[in-house]
Amino acid sequence: MWWTNSENQEIVYKVILIREIIKTNDGSTTIYLPEWNESYHSKNGAIQEAYHVFIKNGLSLFKVKSIAILEIGFGTGLNAFITFLEAKKTNLTIDYVGVEAYPIEMEEAMKMNYPNEIDVSETTVFKKIHEFSWDLKNQLSDNFMLTKRKQFFQDIQDEASFDLIYFDAFGFRVQPDLWSDTIFVAMFKALKPNGILVTYACRTSIKNAMLSAGFSVEKLPGAPGKREMLRASKVF
Q1: What is the rounded distance in angstroms from the CA atom of residue 56 to the CA atom of residue 68?
Q2: Residues near 182 by Cβ (< 8 Å), separated by ≥ 6?
Q3: Which CATH superfamily is domain 47-233 in?
Q4: How far apart are CA 71 and CA 61, in angstroms?
Q5: Which of 123, 129, 144, 218 gives 20 to 30 Å between its CA and that of 116?
Q6: 3-class secondary-structure state, position 22
Q7: Domain-by-domain residue ranges, the chain?
Q8: What b/e string do you get for 31-56 counting C-beta neighbours within 10 Å, with b at 16 or more?
Q9: 136-162 confidence digits (pLDDT tens)
Q10: Is the pTM of this model over 0.70?
């Protein structure tokens, strides 16, 4: 989750945007920004939303043995963590790239209770996800490579590199520029033919931005507390 790249806005982000650790309705934690009334994950349930949007309606569609994933808004590392767990269960090989301009602190990451809520035996893995150096490819396991890129959305220039995109930016209400035509053109270019983008959001302007970029778009039932979500496909 991140802000835009103006020098003045970076100062505002650091000075004003206080981050608080809160519990969501499913017992899992998230980070809350009181000045924006915005959280990194749904207050209705961080873990259940992540599984519903990114695993059930994204990762589970892939039956091949190896895929590349781009996450927009690395944030707390929850989506990377649950994807690692799914890869372990299904013997799927994943090359995972998470983009984040303003990484959370290690102290904050260790206050996230995801291993305790999902699989306490993988506490060390969750810690490694946050300990790994940025902008380097790291081997989390034999079948899971993780690259954390400290980067702004506007600077993404990948072309036909990913099978699946987890689009998990802050909401349109607080950062509409992260849901623009320009951003989704970059996402379209970053996907391989027949690649898929999934996001928790479902707003007409977002759907239209995706359609303008060339995506085929469908509405799906949302996670608890949200009526709908979007899945966009690069159909060739």
Answers
A1: 17
A2: 154
A3: Vaccinia Virus protein VP39 (3.40.50.150)
A4: 17
A5: 144
A6: strand
A7: 47-233
A8: bbbeeeebbbbbeebbbbbbbbbbbe
A9: 999 999 999 999 999 999 999 999 999
A10: yes
